[in-house]
Write a structure and sequence with these properties.
The chain is built from ten helices and no strands. The protein is mainly α. Helix 5 runs antiparallel to helix 8. It starts with a helix and ends in a 21-residue tail after the last helix. About 15% of the residues are buried.
């Protein structure tokens, strides 16, 4: 009996050591889908809703053309029309502007208690100077102007995407505006003069204000509200005015 007990203790200890070793030194293997599931879901949702927008917009625009006794467009023609281009890129434009401003403004501005803000005092890991270690990205190891550019690549990319989207929105809105002018029997407007049309700026500002509101909402609401398990929220038991980044 004593021998059996001793063997059981030895086996139990061995099993516990194996579990400890596995937890410490062996990383759990996750599938590619699991490791990229967040981006996959949002990209899929993007294409689904973009297709839904195109199909419904196609029906709406052709109905408008029919009411004006103008020729209907094929679906391919619609995708190249000002109606679709304007509606699509005015949304892209506001999103990229929001993200560019958010990335830049969160460098120096603070909101006490918000999960979206850096701490009120002290340095954060994102503030430290990059170290050219073997595992660091290539621009960090390269150094010089390449590192300088890479250090601001996120905000610069969002800014570039905003400018491209703004240009496409402007072009699409101008095209769509002139189609409406023709429907009403009015003269078309030159592209150089369209920048003064309130229609374009109405489309622009109605999208910008909604993005600024959504950012302000998550900045302020994360002070008081929680979502267990989400990295966009503070831990549930964190005090309201404790700022975590």
């Amino acid at each position: 009996m004593k021998l059996n007990k001793r063997l059981n203790v030895i086996l139990e200890n061995t099993f516990l050591q194996i579990i400890w070793y596995k937890n410490k030194y062996m990383k759990k293997h996750y599938s590619w889908l699991y490791r990229n599931s967040l981006s996959i879901v949002f990209i899929a949702l993007f294409f689904i809703t973009l297709l839904a927008q195109a199909l419904t917009g196609f029906k709406v625009h052709n109905s408008e053309l029919e009411d004006a006794s103008m020729a209907a467009l094929s679906f391919t023609e619609y995708l190249n029309s000002g109606h679709f281009i304007s509606a699509t890129f005015e949304n892209f434009e506001s999103e990229f502007l929001q993200m560019a401003l958010y990335v830049v403004l969160t460098i120096s501005l603070r909101q006490i208690g918000s999960a979206e803000s850096k701490k009120i005092e002290g340095k954060e890991p994102v503030d430290r100077e990059p170290e050219p270690s073997a595992k660091a990205p290539w621009p960090v190891r390269k150094g010089g102007w390449i590192l300088k550019l890479y250090s601001h690549s996120l905000s610069l990319t969002f800014l570039l995407l905003f400018l491209i989207s703004w240009t496409m929105h402007f072009y699409g809105s101008w095209e769509d505006f002139n189609v409406e002018q023709k429907m009403d029997g009015k003269p078309v407007v030159e592209i150089s003069m369209y920048v003064f049309e309130p229609t374009f700026w109405f489309e622009t500002f109605q999208n910008w204000q909604s993005e600024f509101l959504s950012v302000a909402s998550i900045v302020v609401l994360t002070i008081f509200l929680r979502q267990k398990g989400s990295p966009e929220s503070k831990p549930v038991d964190t005090p309201y005015l404790e700022t975590e980044s």
